[in-house]
MarR family transcriptional regulator
Amino acid sequence: MVNNTTLDNLFQLVHALKRQLYQQIEQLNLDITPMHVRVIKIINNITPCTAIDIATVLDRDKAQITRLLSTLIDKGFISKAPNPGDKRSSYLCVTNSGMEIIKKLADIDFVLQEKITHNVSADEIALFQQLAKQMIHNLREQ
């Protein structure tokens, strides 16, 4: 049995991480949100990538993803290419400008990783990862 402190701690961790990420992204003057950052990273990691792929990974509806993609396309960070297998969808690609952001984000990720794991042993990190995966699985199980 777990008390409310567990949930409070998780909320505080997520909030602190989001705040740190937002502050780091804000310093890049990109005028995008952390969710835009997640989308760019997904497109960079999944090849080929469609809006449906992003919606699936983020567990969001396609309309919400379409709005995020629109902003990233308007800013020139991603582009669309025809999907030869499905005329109703497009492949999404990170542009050269987007790749510059990916490189900056890798630096941010490194700094945040170092900060969040400071004074935490490798065994504790491994245990945290195991617990987090189990908790995510529990929440996704219906």
Summary: The first strand starts at residue 78 and ends at 82. DSSP finds six helices and two strands in the chain. The domain at 4-116 is CATH 1.10.10.10 (Arc Repressor Mutant, subunit A). The chain has one domain: 4-116.
